[in-house]
Task: inverse folding
């Protein structure tokens, strides 16, 4: 298709109009170029100012993720369990048969297997001084059992060797029978701390008390 030709200029005034239009267009383009250059220069200056203000920078190091530790389980009450086990081990039975363990003498004394007979003889003669004493007279059976167990255990911990246990003669009991006497013998024999015991001398309680020899504690 043939290219269209610009309209022919009819006069000198038409030529001047065209020239004026072209000049105005060139001025606009020049002004736009100046504005773009000024904007670019301003942006570069602002970036340079920021860089100088911040100074040298380094990229942040990525920290390794730390796994959260799960919440620990509730602590096991080990000491409480040990205390309960100890109480069970030290439970003193009223049904324990002591008749085959007591020496068949007037005072019905006791000594552990392997303990020589002169131990009870010396104990009866007072060759060991009494260091502690507990009086169970008048207590109910369950109270006396607990009190005696605690007394023997604490005496053993403190290194006490010889104690007196007062159980009473039973004069105020029904039938005037010493209710605690036989029970105290049973309880003492069941305590591992007990090495031997004998009836106390008349001046120390006689038939209403026992003199007990305890095993020495290992330190």
Result:
């Amino acid at each position: 298709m043939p290219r269209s030709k610009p309209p022919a200029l009819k006069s000198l005034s038409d030529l001047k109009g065209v020239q004026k239009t072209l000049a105005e267009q060139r001025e606009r383009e020049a002004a736009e170029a100046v504005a773009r250059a000024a904007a670019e220069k301003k942006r570069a200056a602002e970036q340079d100012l920021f860089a100088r203000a911040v100074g040298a920078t380094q990229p942040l190091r990525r920290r390794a993720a730390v796994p959260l530790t799960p919440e620990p389980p509730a602590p096991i009450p080990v000491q409480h369990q040990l205390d309960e086990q100890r109480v069970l081990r030290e439970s003193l039975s009223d049904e324990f048969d002591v008749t085959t363990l007591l020496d068949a003498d007037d005072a019905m004394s006791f000594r552990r297997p392997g303990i020589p007979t002169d131990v009870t003889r010396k104990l009866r003669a007072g060759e060991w001084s009494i260091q502690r004493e507990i009086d169970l007279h008048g207590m109910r059976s369950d109270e006396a059992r607990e009190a005696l167990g605690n007394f023997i255990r604490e005496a053993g911990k403190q290194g006490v060797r010889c104690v007196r246990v007062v159980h009473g003669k039973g004069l105020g009991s029904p039938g005037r029978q010493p209710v605690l006497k036989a029970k105290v013998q049973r309880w003492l024999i069941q305590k591992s701390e007990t090495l031997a015991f004998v009836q106390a001398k008349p001046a120390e309680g006689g038939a209403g008390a026992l003199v007990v020899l305890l095993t020495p504690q290992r330190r």
